[in-house]
Design goal:
The protein is an alpha+beta fold. It has 8 helices and 4 strands; from the N terminus they run H-H-E-H-H-H-E-H-E-H-E-H. It has one domain: NADH Oxidase (3-Layer(aba) Sandwich), CATH 3.40.109.10. Helix 1 crosses helix 6 and helix 2 crosses helix 6. The longest helix has 20 residues.
Length: 223
């Protein structure tokens, strides 16, 4: 698989098999991802990978906070804040496509909520990662973290694995910090559930479109 094939093959998968990734394979993938570029080689990212029994305990701890009515407390501004114009339109279309695949109508609020809660169940993936960076850094550093995340996701695809990046997993950071996996002074930017795709699962039929190149690129050839 070349880079172009990996980029086009990667998409957000939300239905996983329970089979864990062998430790040696997982370490090999992460060893590749660490070669992602960053500004002045600062490498501001940190990845906390939670699996096995720890994953089960963490899942329940997050759900307990939500069910108790605890307000979200993200360190960084969530990605759906302040969206306007075509960005808001794309977010809306994404939601409609997702609900449509799952047979959920707009007025079925309970079903939409239940689908959203699957984020905090890690979509039943055997592994979940929490991507963080120092909390006092800003957008430029977050670009570096995004490059690392994309590198990791492409390395997973190359090895026949699947993933879904989740901004929602930054909303309840305390249970993650309680297990000791996030460095002091770091804030969670997003989560990443990953493992082997459950091919044929209905939820994986959601395929999102992309904007045309002329909508996102301006070509200037003369002044």
């Amino acid at each position: 698989m070349n880079v172009t094939e990996a980029i086009k093959a990667r998409r957000s998968i939300r239905g996983f098999k329970p089979d864990p990734i062998p430790d040696d394979l997982l370490r090999d993938i992460l060893d590749v991802a660490r070669f992602a570029p960053s500004n002045c080689n600062t490498q501001p990212w940190h990845l906390t990978v939670v699996s096995g029994e720890a994953r089960q305990r963490l899942r329940q701890a997050i759900l307990d906070e939500i069910n108790a009515g605890k307000a979200p407390s993200p360190v960084f501004t969530p990605g759906d804040v302040n969206l306007q114009g075509p960005l808001k339109d794309r977010q809306y279309q994404c939601a409609m496509d997702y609900y449509g695949v799952m047979g959920i109508e707009r007025h079925e609020r309970d079903k939409r909520t239940a689908l959203a809660m699957k984020n905090f169940e890690f979509f039943d993936a055997p592994h979940v990662g929490f991507v963080s960076m120092p909390a006092d850094l800003g957008p430029t550093n977050a670009v570096d973290v995004g490059i690392f995340l994309q590198t990791l996701m492409l390395a997973l695809v190359e090895r026949g694995l699947a993933s879904v990046p989740q901004g929602a997993l930054a909303l309840y950071p305390d249970p993650v910090k309680a297990i000791g996996g996030v460095p002091e002074g770091y804030g969670i930017i997003c989560g990443l559930s990953f493992g082997y795709e459950d091919v044929g699962a209905q939820i994986n039929d959601a395929i999102m479109g992309r904007a045309d190149i002329d909508d996102i690129v301006t070509f200037i050839r003369a002044c």
